[in-house]
Specification:
The protein has 15 helices and 16 strands. By secondary structure, it is of the alpha+beta class. It has two domains: 399 residues, no CATH class; 63 residues, no CATH class. Strands 5-6-7-8-10 form a five-stranded antiparallel sheet, with no helix packed on it. The longest helix is centred in the last third of the chain and has 36 residues.
Length: 542
């Protein structure tokens, strides 16, 4: 790692980026997720044809539209990922006053931690990864009670890949890699640098010529790491840090939240790395189809070409055409002198564009392993059970990998939080367990299966756990306190139900089960199971 003076740096040092930094690609992925307006504003949607007028191109840009498949893919993955039952054990940390404050407002903007984590994973799904800085105010309040009174506790800040400018990993004495250096840029254009020994914050003044005698590459376009501020022969203006200090943690408090880990750390793999290109090409296809409709869907008159100035009957005037005009022609020229109408045939090119778009949509579903969810949309015949099972297995594997990465990041955040509070021993009893199996079938089918199972498995514990599982399926974004309250209420209700049930009460039959084989195979008296919400109709639908 280059040796820097944390008190004073050059613009070269601050604006230089890592060799793997790829701002243009990440901007393209982000624009694809945000939709057509963002793609147009950043110049990713349409290309001007070499023989196209500027006015026509501007009109196409104004009328452009898309179907937003990139956004749908990311949101679908995110929904199913957080739909699973995530087990969290917090130990003594659950009763910590400042941890409770952090859970309610993790980033000092009022965001709940679990909701913020869900949003962070969504952005990781878009761009491949995001960075998370776990920081704390440098103010020294002396005691936890003083910090609580001042509303001070460790907090998190999320950084998109575009703002993670430079990083470096080193190895310790045991050959274990660790993050030795990170440089990020805030939305307010402040540069933050962290090493294992110190941290510093910089702001480039507007009156400094940022590129004067620079050997660095601009952060918006380049991929060259800078330097030059450490050797003492600085050719650029130097900048004093606006704030700096020692790093008492002894490590860089920065966590990478990966979507899918790539071959090069810390670069993650986006869910739409291929979809975004197909999505933008569909936008261009749609624009071309609109051009066909605009200029080819109406018949056009054609007539024999005459010399300039000859006009109708050689009077030197232009031909007139319209509902009140009479177009004259010379009968001596026979049929060749008569005007006719060019047939308007747009069905063939439009059909070709539609079929081409349908093929691209099918490839979107195939490449993302979600074809089983849209089998009727992308093919004429439904897929076989084996094919659908294979699709779901591939999707499940991807969701498990994504879940493991969120689990690692969540644990790392909690460990750093405890470390900032000098309560690292509390982390020993903290655990997070994401599911190893994601059911991507319809939630209604989940409920049906659960309700049927309750009539088969005659166990109070089983029925209690089934109800808890249903609650988590219906409320995937609920926080720990809410889920704990629901669990207590379910357990209490089940215990009361068992206490109120007299011994020997008949057990309701399973629908379709033969309850009396001696009566000619009759189905017996079937007691229908109550479905939550059916009694009052106020559940808003299931």
């Amino acid at each position: 790692m280059a040796v820097y003076n944390r008190k004073k740096m050059t613009v070269n040092d601050l604006e230089a980026v890592h060799v793997d930094y790829d701002r243009q690609f990440w901007n393209f992925l982000l624009a694809s997720y945000e939709g057509i307006k963002s793609l147009i504003d950043k110049g990713f949607a349409l290309n001007k044809h070499e023989r196209e007028s500027q006015d026509n191109y501007d009109r196409r840009v104004e009328e452009a539209y898309g179907f937003g498949y990139s956004g749908s893919v990311v949101d679908l993955f995110n929904f199913y990922l957080f739909k699973g039952n995530i087990k969290r054990e917090m130990g003594a940390l659950a009763d910590d006053k400042q941890w409770g404050m952090f859970e309610d407002d993790c980033n000092l903007y009022g965001d709940n931690f679990l909701v913020w984590l869900l949003e962070s994973q969504r952005w990781a799904g878009v761009m491949g990864h995001v960075g998370i800085l776990v920081d704390k105010s440098a103010s020294d309040f002396g005691t936890p009670s003083q910090e609580i009174a001042a509303n001070v506790y460790p907090y998190v800040s999320r950084y998109f890949p575009q703002n993670i400018l430079d990083w470096e990993f080193e190895r310790d004495d045991n050959n274990r890699p660790y993050l030795a250096y990170i440089k990020v840029r805030d939305d307010d254009a402040r540069y933050r640098i962290w090493t294992r020994d110190w941290w510093a914050v910089y702001e480039i003044p507007d009156d400094i010529d940022a590129m004067a005698n620079s050997t660095a590459t601009d952060v918006d376009t380049g991929q060259v790491r800078g330097g030059g501020g450490a050797a003492g022969e600085e050719t650029q203006p130097t900048i004093d840090s606006t704030d700096d200090g020692d790093n008492d943690l002894g490590e860089v408090p920065f966590v990478w939240l990966y979507n899918i880990k790539g071959k090069t750390r810390p670069i993650g793999i986006s869910d739409i790395k291929d979809v975004a290109y197909i999505d933008s090409s569909i936008i261009r296809n749609l624009s071309g189809g609109e051009e066909v409709i605009s200029y080819g869907a109406f018949p056009m008159m054609r007539k024999p070409m005459r010399e300039e100035g000859s006009g109708a009957q050689g009077r030197g005037a232009d031909d007139e055409a319209g509902i009140t005009a009479i177009l004259e022609f010379n009968p001596e020229h026979g049929e060749e002198g008569k005007p006719d109408w060019l047939e308007s045939k747009v069905a063939e090119p439009i059909d070709a564009i539609v079929k081409w778009i349908e093929r691209k949509v099918a490839e979107i579903y195939r490449t993302t392993n979600i074809g089983g969810m849209a089998a009727t949309e992308i093919q004429e015949a439904p897929k076989s059970g084996t094919a659908l099972k294979s699709e779901f297995q591939l999707l499940n594997g991807k969701l498990v990998s994504k879940g493991n990465n969120v689990e690692e990041a969540e644990l790392a955040i909690k460990r750093l939080w405890c470390q900032w509070q000098n309560k690292l021993s509390m982390f020993d009893n903290v655990s997070v367990e994401w599911p190893e199996d994601f059911d991507v079938a319809n939630l209604a089918q989940d409920l049906e299966n659960a309700l049927t199972a309750k009539t088969v498995v005659l166990s109070t514990t089983f029925q209690t756990e089934v109800q808890k599982g249903i609650a988590r399926g219906m409320l995937p974004n609920a926080d720990n306190k809410t889920l704990e309250t629901i669990d207590d209420e379910i357990t209490e209700a089940q215990e009361k139900k068992d206490a109120d049930t007299p011994p020997g009460t008949p057990i309701p039959a399973v629908p379709g089960q033969d309850t009396d084989p001696g009566q000619g195979g009759g189905r017996g008296n079937i007691v229908p199971l109550p479905v939550p919400g059916d009694a009052t109709g106020t559940d808003g639908g299931s």
